[in-house]
Each structure stands twice: as C-alpha cells, then as structure tokens.
C-alpha cells in the first residue's frame, strides 16, 4: 500500500433496468471506453488511493470482462454485488485492505467524476466526518400528485443534489452499515450519506461537478458523450 490509505468502492452491481437492452449500463462503452473503466482509472490516478474494489453482479464477478484489467491490477479487487445497493457497498467494504482508513464510495453510473472533485471529498472525510460531493439546487421545484397536477412549490433554499463519490472515515461508515442492518432498514438507503444521517452521524457537502452526471436512462448516454470532451476542464 506504500502509505496509500484511501480505499474506493465502486458500485457497479445494479441491473440498469431503466436504460434497457441486454448489456449492463455500467459495462457499456461511452467516450471511448466502458463506463466502469472511466471511474476505475480515474481513482487509481490519485496518489492517495491504495485499493479500488469494483462491485459487480455475481455473474460478472466470477468472469469479469477483460478490459477491466486495463489498470493497475495490484490496486484492484473484484467483489460480488448484493440484493441492494447497500449490500453491495457492504460487500466492497469487507474486501478493502485494513490499511484503507478513509473510504470513498462511488457509483459506476457517474463516469466523469474528476480528480479535483474527488480530492475535495477526500480532504473533508479526513477531517473525521462524512463528505458528499453535491451541487446546490438552482431550479424551481414543484411537488406533484399522481395525476401530474402541481401540489406545491418547494423552497429550494438549503437544498443540494447529492452526487458521488461520498467519503467517510472507515470506522464510521462501517458502523453506519452495521447499525442499519441491526435496525432492519439497511436496504432502504439510496446512498451512504443517508445511512449516516439517520444515525445522527455528521455529513458535510463539498462542491461537486456538473460533469459528474449520473447515467440513468437511455438518453443520458448522448448527454454524457457531449460532456466527455469537457471532463478535464474546470467548472465555471
């Protein structure tokens, strides 16, 4: 590990059902390489990162695509995904070496998280609490009913859009997962910050990036391709 005490869990265990098609979205090519490989190589380029665990669905974990080895294989492990996102993260945490005392958790569906954004998350997490890359909400928000009728306008003051990576002292995030399992709501959390929040653990936001968009639906691939040439440029 040579003093590299940051571990990364890249969550790529989902089915990507909203994208459609036979191929998992995190394995589809975008901007010249598979989506997962973008994140894997970006995190391994950060000097503080000692290990990256890629959490894949069971059928891929045993026979991973060959392109995944286009990286520093000495700093990569493959873990098996669980039934929920939280289970997949917990599996990845278990496989990280003990030297990784700070942990970043990242969604493979965000292929363009840049090194500056990641660095801000690491720095904040090393202060002893959770850290989430996020962007302030700037649009007017409307709450609607099942028929599409607007019920109310939601005040956007203090609202942020959470992204990944999210970073934590390892002992803190492991406790959050452990306590959530004991309480019976582990699988309900949509991100790791939510686990900490529900347990009263402090989590701070740091500035995210518009380029770190999440590829969720089929049309997002075209938008991500358009962003790809700008991913190394600083945000305005």
CA-atom Rg in angstroms: 18 Å
Output the number of helix runs. Answer: 7
Structurally, the number of domains stands at 1
Secondary-structure-derived class: alpha/beta
From the N-terminal CA to the C-terminal CA, the straight-line distance is 36 Å
The name of the CATH architecture is Alpha-Beta Complex
- H and E order: EEEHEHEHEHEEEEHHEH
Question: How many individual β-strands?
Answer: 11
| Main CATH class | Alpha Beta
- Uncertain segments are 16-21
Order of strands in the sheet with the most strands?
5-4-1-6-10-7-11
Question: What portion of residues is helical?
Answer: 25-40%
CATH homology superfamily: Spore Coat Polysaccharide Biosynthesis Protein SpsA, Chain A
Estimated share of beta-strand residues: 25-35%
